[in-house]
Every structure is written in structure tokens, then in C-alpha cells.
Amino acid sequence: MKMILPLTLILTLFSTAGALMCETCTNTQCSSTAPVTCTSETMCVTASIQATSSGTTVSQIFKACASSSLCPAAGTQTFSGDLGASSAVASAQCCNTDNCNSATLPFPAAQGNNGLQCFSCDPTTSISNCTTPLQCRGVEDSCLQTTLTIGSSTVPAFGCASSNLCAVASSLGSLPFIQSLGAISSTVECCGTSLCNAPQTITAPTTTTTTTTTTTTTAAKKNRLAVTAIISWWIPGKKS
Q1: 58, 96, 187, 203: least buried by Cβ within 10 Å?
Q2: How far is C-alpha 180 from the chain's CA centre?
């Protein structure tokens, strides 16, 4: 029994000795940070986010350990997504050395309109009403279509997105940096041409009924008694 405690301590030390350490925000304003030992994450991330909801824009700073889903490689990139009622654009930097995410990045500059348009919808409507064209901006080079679960409700999510946001959302299970919108509850589908994310319409198959009319000629009537046996063979139960 005396050996169990030291052995457990040694194993714990070995398991954390090679673990990455990253800075994390200690409050919502991220006015102060503290180092944290990552569990299985292999990257640190620092991000400056401009999030807009119902016309109100809020600036946020995010620092944490990051999974390979969010940070597949070291470097700086811009994520952007716009669902019409809510949107977010983030400047993010991923790195893989201890406390490398201590710097705070500048907030993203305003994004100008680009040539892409995507369908969007009010999250309170049904998926069939998501047909409002939305002008995409900046790095938003894809149209997105999925559903989000918020509490006990499932709502459609249509809009513009950067291709890296599409890739991350599929593996992360949420829209990066706008996780407050809910968890993804269906496949994330993205496409790269204007209005390519139209809601799917299911059309019931059409059933065609063909009516066959049989015409009996006067000559046939005259010979009816002579051919009764043949008619009875082709049309069982027919009476003369």
C-alpha cells in the first residue's frame, strides 16, 4: 500500500509533464489571464471576435486550449459566418508552444460585400421559409445549411460562411466563436455558388392512370356468337 501512492504520483507527473500549457481568460472581458494545463488539446488559440445579434455588435476576446478540429495547424486565419439575425467574424491565431497565446489580436476590420449571395432565415421560422437572399461579405465564400439545437428546440441555420468555418463546424459540432447559437444537430452542408443553399423541396410522386377503351365494331357484333369461345378465353367471365 505504501508503494501505491508514490507510484500514482509518478504516473501523474509523467502524464502532465509533456502536456501543453495555454493562457485562458479569467473573466468575460479577458482583462486578465491564467495558464492552464491542456488535457488532450495540442494547440493554443487566441481570438478577437466581433459578434452581432439583432443589430447589436459586441467585441469578445477568447484564449484557451484548442483541439485539432479548431486549430488543424499553427498560423493566423479569419473565420466569418452570417445567419442573418446573428453573425460573427473572428481573427484567430493558433500556436503549439506553452503560453504562446498570450497576445491579444486586433479586432477584425469591417468586411465589404463580395459577389456571393446565400439564402438565410429567421431562426424562429420553419425550414421552408428560409428563402431570404443574404449578401455575403469578406472571406465568406460559402453558403451554409444546417440545423441547430437550442435547449429543447431545433431551428434551421442558413447563411454565409467562410470555408474554414464550414470545415471546423462539421468536426467541432458547433459554429466556432458563435457557440451561443446552439449545437449543430444535422449535417453541415456548404456550397460555393450564389443561392446554392436553397431549402430542399420534396415533391410527391405523380401517379398516372391510363384508361383503356375497348370499341366493338358492328361486324364483330354480327359474328359474336361465332367467336364466343375465343372471347371467353381472353376475357374470363364475359357473358354473351
Answers
A1: 203
A2: 14
Residue 169's region, left for phi above 0, alpha for psi from -120 to 50, else beta, is alpha
How far apart are the C-alpha atoms of 217 and 172, rounded to whole Å?
75
CB 158 within 8 A of CB 147: no
Round the CA-based radius of gyration of the chain to a whole number and report it.
32
Q: What is the pTM of this model?
A: 0.73
The tens digit of pLDDT for each residue in 125-165 reads 666 689 999 999 999 999 999 998 888 888 889 999 999 99
Question: Where exactly are the structural domains of the chain?
Answer: 22-191
60-78 pLDDT, tens digit each: 999 999 999 899 999 999 9
Collect all residues with Cβ–Cβ distance below 8 Å to 13 and sequence separation of at least 6: none
Listing DSSP states for the chain in one string gives -TTHHHHHHHHHHHHHHT--EEEEESSTT--SEEEEE-SS--EEEEEEEEEEETTEEEEEEEEEEE-TTT-SSSEEEEEEEE-SSEEEEEEEEEE-STTTT-S-PPPPPPPPEEEEEEEE--TTS-GGG--EEEEEETT--EEEEEEEEETTEEEEEEEEE-HHHHHHHHHHSB-TT-GGG-EE-S--EEESSTTTTPPP-PPPPPP--PPP-----HHHHHTTGGGHHHHHHHSTT---
Sorting pLDDT into bands at 50, 70 and 90, what band is 83? Answer: very high
Q: Which residue has the cell 444546417?
A: 146
Contact 227, 240 (CB under 8 A): no
